[in-house]
UniProtKB/TrEMBL annotation:
GO molecular function (one): nucleic acid binding
GO cellular component, as recorded: cytoplasm; tRNA methyltransferase complex
Function summary: Catalytic subunit of the TRMT11-TRM112 methyltransferase complex, that specifically mediates the S-adenosyl-L-methionine-dependent N(2)-methylation of guanosine nucleotide at position 10 (m2G10) in tRNAs. This is one of the major tRNA (guanine-N(2))-methyltransferases.
Record field: catalytic activity: guanosine(10) in tRNA + S-adenosyl-L-methionine = N(2)-methylguanosine(10) in tRNA + S-adenosyl-L-homocysteine + H(+)
Gene: LOC103511003
Assembly behavior: Part of the heterodimeric TRMT11-TRM112 methyltransferase complex; this complex forms an active tRNA methyltransferase, where TRMT112 acts as an activator of the catalytic subunit TRMT11.
Membrane-crossing segments per the record: 31-52
GO BP terms in the entry: methylation
Gene3D superfamilies: Vaccinia Virus protein VP39 (3.40.50.150)
Name under which the protein is recorded: tRNA (guanine(10)-N(2))-methyltransferase TRMT11
Length: 274
């Protein structure tokens, strides 16, 4: 996340010294660093072990051949002199929160995965297989299944409804196709009021919205999980890549048409000269 955008999100969350801030999709920890800069105590979780411990492949082509050393979320805080504000990060599945009911947060700031650069996954099994009875298996690597964006947003807002204080803020991004955007279709929850909706343009066709919610009521003890956004018939990821393929096809077609027109023009000029 860009540093300026991270600071904007912390500002939107109205972070003040002593606040307790949580990010359920930590990644490299940039959002938590911004919150810690404002004096908050921060913690979070992520399902990606490799990301939290700085073991993923570098995105910059120039340094991909260089082994990563001493990189992690904690080290990032030490570099900014904010280690005292860092509580911890856990490898955990956000679809199955592990926190006690008594946990009360001042704000949640996060950037959920869209399925473009980061995978949208949760722990699960596509098929039922017998468990290994080998007692020598000391490490378990759980299988993962797709975690749709509507499910991510529903789980996020229901979690926030349970654990945010009254007046606490939930700040996060969602991706949209600009031609299909409709404010009435933004995520809604009975415990929250949408107080800010900003756009960051990513391309001619896509953008993402920075949404800021404020908690206005507690959920009832018997309340069921709310579905905050309708299920997608086609996921944002599929639409994104299908649209990219269509765009490439249109460019190739237009290039071919221009080439044919150029050939015809040369043929006419040659005919006139004769």
């Amino acid at each position: 996340m860009d540093a300026q955008l991270s600071l904007i999100m912390a500002n939107q969350a109205q972070v003040v010294p002593g606040d307790l801030i949580f990010d359920p999709f930590v990644g490299s920890g940039s959002l938590l660093i911004s919150a810690a800069y404002f004096g908050a105590y921060v913690f979070g979780c992520d399902i990606d072990f490799m990301m939290l411990h700085g073991k993923t492949r570098p995105t910059r082509k120039q340094v991909r051949h260089i082994p990563r050393q001493n990189e992690s979320v904690c080290v990032n805080f030490e570099q900014y002199g904010l280690r005292s504000r860092y509580i911890d990060v856990l490898v955990a599945d956000s679809s199955v929160p592990l926190w006690r009911d008594g946990l009360v947060l001042d704000a949640i700031i996060t950037d959920p995965p869209y399925g473009i650069r980061e995978a949208t996954e949760k722990v699960g099994a596509k098929s039922t297989k017998p468990c290994s009875e080998n007692s020598d298996d000391s490490v378990h690597y759980p299988s993962k299944v797709d975690y749709s964006l509507p499910d991510i947003l529903s789980d996020l807002m229901n979690f926030a409804a349970r654990h945010l204080k009254l007046g606490g803020r939930l700040v996060y991004w969602i991706p949209v196709f600009r031609s299909e955007y409709c404010a009435d279709e933004l995520p809604r929850h009975s415990c929250f009021s949408l107080i800010s909706n900003s756009e960051q343009v990513l391309s001619t066709h896509t953008s993402r919205r920075l949404l800021t919610y404020e908690k206005i009521s507690h959920p009832s003890s018997s309340a069921v999980k709310e579905r905050v956004v309708l299920a997608e018939s086609v996921s944002f990821r599929d639409k994104f890549f299908n649209h990219a393929e269509e765009t490439r096809h249109m460019k190739r077609k237009k290039k071919m048409e221009n080439f044919e027109k150029y050939q015809m023009k040369l043929a006419l000029q040659d005919k006139e000269q004769r």
